[in-house]
Amino acid sequence: MTVALSELDTKFKYDVANEPGGENIKLCFACGLCTASCPVADIDQKFNPRRIIRMVLLGMRKEVLSSDTIWFCIQCYNCQGHCPQNVDFADIMKALRSIAVREGHVAPSFVEKIKEIDVFCQKLRHEMVSEIVDSRSRGTEVEPSGLAMEALKRL
Amino acid sequence: MEKQSGNGKIGAVLVVGGGVGGIQAALDLAESGYYVYLVEKSPSIGGVMAQLDKTFPTNDCSMCILSPKLVEVASHQNVRLLTYTEIKSINGEAGNFNVKLRKKATYVDWEKCTGCGVCSEWCPVVMKSEFNTGLGPRRAIYTPFPQAVPKKYVIDKEEERLCHAACRDACPLHMNVPGYIKLIAEGQDEEAYGLIRATNPLPAICGRICYAPCQEACNRGQIDEPLAIRDLKRFVTDYSDIEKLEVPTVEPSGKSVAIIGAGPAGLVAAHDLALKGHKAVIFEALPKPGGMLQVGIPEYRLPKELVRKEIEYITKLGVEIKTGVEIGKHISLGELRREFNAIFLGIGAHQGMELKVPGEDLPGVVQGVEFLRNVNLGKKVRVGRKVAVIGGGNTALDCARTAKRLGAEEVTILYRRTRAEMPASVEEIDAAEAEGIKIEFLVAPGRFVGNKRLSKIELIRMKLGAPDASGRPRPVPVAGSEFELSVNSVIAALGQAAKTDFVKELCISLSKRGTIEVNPGTGATNIEGVFAGGDAVTGPAFVVDAMAAGRRAARSIDAFLRGIPLPVEERAEPQKLTAEEIQRLKNRFGESSQHKMAEVPVEQRGGFGEVTLGYSTQEACKEAERCLAGQVTGCIQCLECVDRCEAKAIDHSMKDTFEEVKVGAVVFAGGYECYNPSELYELGYGRLPNVVTSIEFERILSASGPFQGVLQRLSDGVPPQKIAFIQCVGSRDAKHNRPYCSSVCCTYAIKEAMIAKEHSTVPLDVTIFFMDLRTYGKDFDRYYERARDEIGVRFVRSKVYSVEAVDSTGDLVVKFTTEDGAIKREKFSMVVLSVGFQSSPELVKLAKQVGIQLNPYGFCQTKPFSPVETSKPGIFVCGAFSAPKDIPETVMQASGAAGEISAFLASARNTLTKERVYPPEKDVAGEEPRIGVFICHCGINIGGYVNVPDATEFAKTLPNVVYAERNLFTCSQDTQERIKKVIEEYKLNRVVVASCTPRTHEPLFRETIRKAGLNPYLFEMANIRDQCSWVHMREPDKATEKAKDLIRMAVAKARLIEPLKPLSLPVNRSALVIGGGVAGMTSALTLAEQGFEVHLIERSNVLGGVARRIHYNLDGEDVQQFLGQLIKKVQKHPKIRVYTDTWIVDVHGYVGNFTTEIMRYRGRVIEKIDHGVTIIATGAEEYKPDEYLWGRDPRVLTQLELEEEIVKKNPDMINCDNLVMIQCVGCRNDERPYCSRVCCNEAIKNALKLREMKPDMNIYILYRDMRTYGFYEEYYEEARRKGIIFLHFDLEDKPRVRQERKGGQLLLRVQVKDKVLGDEIVIDADFLVLSVAMVSSPDVRELAMLYKVPVNEDGFFLEAHVKLRPVDFATEGVFVCGLAHAPKSLEESIAQAKAAASRATTILVKDAIIGEGIVASVNEELCSGCGVCEVLCPYGAIAVDREKGVSAVNEALCKGCGTCCAACPSGAVQQRGFTRQEISAMLSAALAGV
């Protein structure tokens, strides 16, 4: 694919940098540590933090804000904890999400739904871990798949 | 040293740091007429370079190239080497600084230390070697590495302060507690016993009944519980057999001493006196010796068998004990005084104190001491059924427990105060109670009641009142509280007194209490020759105190007998730890509790058998390991080294010394530290054994390292098959406050990768994970390509996220992402972290004290046009302390700083330096050879394997040998004196030393014989260490035979050797500098300011060179302003003559005496310039590209062209919207495979400037590797912060540029593949700027021919040595600097220009240059003039004289390499000092033994 910079919004990076959380985006020197440390990228290589940053820097405004990928981040802050340039990618994701909402790429209710999913995931995890801990104390074998079903039922 | 005027400036310089930078600065300055103090905090100079295995890009052995420099600086008469020294402060101002130094105690007298290393072999303390980065061991007494300079030992007591060894200070005998505890912990029980006995002649006794003040003082006790020191001492004695102990023989002094009393004081006094050779006779009133040990302490606490054995050993030393002799009854004190030379009174206190209570004389009331004495002497003693013991001390408890053992059913101790005030030890009280003894507190007897025999005691209750004289609360009777206790026996144990009435005979003064009065420091009484100690002096006290008193008196008596002043004992008080220290120790060691000795169960304790059972070996080790000293201190003061050192160099009492020196200038060359990556948890350092740092890996690879160069991983010693290098660990990391680039890691990682592959015994894969590969130095890119293409090192552009263990195999999984976003996990057997540089905290502290400005990361702040100056005048900097850098740049800066100082202090030159002065040389011509042979034992190094006495006798039999001797260390200072004396005495005219290697020691011996008036070449050496004792360790006979052969060969040659006279050449003290750019002008000015005449040659018609096109730099400084000032200074300087429009035509001569012919005014004038040195600074040029439409489209510019447009404020340029820069145009390709080093920084500089002018300009920099090394990285960060976009491309996928029509426009379209997106990016540029290569100037090769200096493949001048001689040429007297050497920044050019000037100065200051004595000479009669020699000579030193038709040697140029001699077909060329006859003689001698 060819990307013609003349067709892009080269000012996009400044907009992101002006958004709370996005301040350090331009510091990126593309080392890729955010991607290597990302648990989401680990399960879905389409989610590539370094690539998202590059797209912002080049001015691919529409492509970024309307993409699915900015919603995949689980806000674990692992990237942020390791980035040698303090680019703060997890915060950048927040900035991009609020711009996306503000500019109408998603409805506010979408954001609410994402929040619910996050809470649900946390609960699910909590239930599953408790289950494993309990079953270990009972001395029986752990059946994670079964556990998941059980936990889901209870939720 | 005589001080002369230097315009108020001092002609000496302080160099801070003994690494390669400090060494170079010191050598340059010392050679330029300044006295140098070279201060290094560690015991040896050498710095980090000494730790490196190899150096890039030549893969030379680091130590091999460094070692000669170390020896050179150490032996320079104008360098004072101050190793193991810290700088406390630097005060004053430029030209006159005051430096306060702390010379740390080495505990080894370096004047005496020969560096033999025997001490270290015997030292029991194994520590981690700092030199081997903790991977290998060293001892507490050590020298950091085998080639250390000075090769002297130090004892590591650095951490001792943490522990204070309070136990030792608390012990009245000052026993070496940490020492023997450490030995116990290491299972060296025999050594521990020896160490204990060294200070305590009654250890088995003290191991049981000592009150152990050491334990009270023990620092471990402040953390948790004190160490069971007494029990450990007992453990050692339990496992030692005193009856087998060796008895030393002592020379008798003929003096005798009478000792009254065979108690602990008398026994120790007698023991010590006997060891001094004095005859000691002990008079003891009791039937058995031992005093209270024998009669006071019950058997169950101290078996009498032990007392007997320890006393028996003392008698074996020659001490005589006369028991049953009472002074005043059997013999008078007066008589003893007449018969003996001195008297010691150690009579103890055996008189029980009376209770002064009615009824005391009733039968059934006995004195405690008497009771115990009778029991201990085996008398029949009966006690009643119910026994009361009165008193609260140990005697009372001994009485009670003894009474119980004698059959008493009910034993009660009556004490008038409470438990807290009881003087008895806690263990004794606990043991007594456990055995069923009752203790009644706050009770005192009022009356003993009984009819003929005691039947009861009337008692009264007490309460505690105000403190009495002893500081304890006074017991006060409680009125009306009287009660009765029925008893059968009462034992009164209130205390004892000495029976001292008999001493009145000699008028010895007594105290009111009846004790003998002595001087507490010496034990002397008021009567001369009479001494006293123990309970008779102090009143009842402890055994160990009495022993200490006996020791003190013995020391005094010995002095008295020798007629010297009595030594006064000084005691160190045990220091308490501060709360902070306690916390620190707690954090470090955690808490643990004392391991208790097993005891006999109470129910089995009927008889007098010992109650405690002692430790097993395992228990003792466990307990001993709790000692903090064993863990934190280095030296444990076992004094093994003192015994082993033949040179008697060890002195444990040494103290730090302080010194103040005055200097005119200071150079900070303190180097750097390696980053410790433990904080980067994911990378695994510190938690995974197979993750090591690059410096550790360097040691792993090194042949002198912990594994002798056998590549292996740490977890299992198995050779790795796959290694990953992770770059930028602690560099380019803003998160961990290290945003700067450490500059050298990329290249050193490549080096380590290559060496690892070469070293590995198994096929090895190496991968280097990097972000930008920064091989920007001279020839480094070639090195990188060789590693990648020829050696097969794999390079992956990625920052590694994590390193994790896979399983129990020790293998590791590295997680990273590739440029396209794929996440990879790859298995490696070992990971190396390429750690960055950081500045050392000590250096930062000193810099702050001095007041020099540092950057936020603790590196010294310098300015671009004054790269070796700190913010404080007179204080200079070089090396990694100013920014991370490699060795050649450090050396350049070091010479640069030296050049700057040389100019600054020129008025004080030669005011403090000294010259070597020698006696006149003896004429030995025509004399029959008289050879002296000195054969070295080198401690046990040679003597342990070669039979040196035998070899010496053999040497004496050789022809012309008039003298032969053997020395423990032939190189020691005293032996040098001896050699000179022997030369005198035996009229020697040749000297042979058979020892180690001439490489290190020949200069020393040559110097020695020169001092004795012999020509230094009348010396020959045989290497019987390396070639005999080292290689034939297991065959001592053969080693000895070979040593004899080598000696025979050396002697055979010595018979033929002749004095040699090296050529002395005068020096023309002017310089020729070629090139009028910044480098040339800076060199010229640095020399001219020192008063040397300079001829500055420039081809063009103006000065300034390429800098004329540079207007500003990254720091924002105005380059043109600087350049203008520089040109003005040069033009105005009276010592500089500038020749513009001038070309060099021809060159003649050699160092000190060059003649250069120049052509001026387009050939109308030819002039000759005579000069002593030449500096080449001909610069370089910008490459004129034929790629990317340059020259075909006006919108395509080079960076220099862009800069001109910016300065002109070209409106089209500064108002444009889209600007693209392409890096590496015309370089890093096949044609020019080198990096031009400055272009990344130039691009960023211009990009930032443009953004400053138009903040919303889109600037795209297309790069291969951003090489913003060192602190330039900050500008790279700034550029990104400002929104400049950086896109990476590969050589295989270069950007494409084309013109494209669109509408009415002709677009300049740049297309590049973005690796992250995977897409083609198209940018329509308003301007395209090319960062083009720097290329050498066209006349380089011609100039190189004229001055006989080499040029590399890229057309840059090739220095003498890429690491250590970066501005010198192999041709002496010619130097290079600036871009002519290699692409570099203005700042670097300036430093190098000063360096070239400094190197030139070392020649210009000399009156004459002394050549080499060992040079070739031609026998003209044999020479056919074939010219083979001329062709082969690498120095152009031999040539056929066309007129005479024979070869002639130019001795000024000859280096004595011998190539011509070997090549000469007619044998006409001979090497002086290695003539054919000499070599034949050696060969015949070698074969004589066959």
Characteristic key phrases:
heterodimer; A: 155 residues; mainly alpha; 9 helices; 59% helix; elongated; B: 1490 residues; alpha/beta; five-stranded parallel β-sheet; 45 helices; 68 strands
Overview of the structural elements:
- The complex is a heterodimer of chains A (155) and B (1490).
- Chain A is mainly alpha-helical.
- Chain A is built from 9 helices and 1 strand, in the order βααααααααα.
- Chain B has 1490 residues and is of the alpha/beta class.
- Chain B starts with 11 loop residues before the first strand and ends with a helix.
- At the A-B interface, strand 1, helix 2 and helix 4 of A face strand 36, helix 40, strand 57 and strand 60 of B.
Could you list the spans of chain A in which at least 5 consecutive residues all have pLDDT below 50?
none
| Gyration radius over CA of chain A | 19 Å
Q: Please state the structural category of chain B.
A: alpha/beta
**Strand runs of chain A, count:** 1
- Percent of residues in helices of chain A comes to 55-70%
Could you tell me how far the N terminus lies from the C terminus of chain B, measured between alpha carbons in angstroms? 56 Å
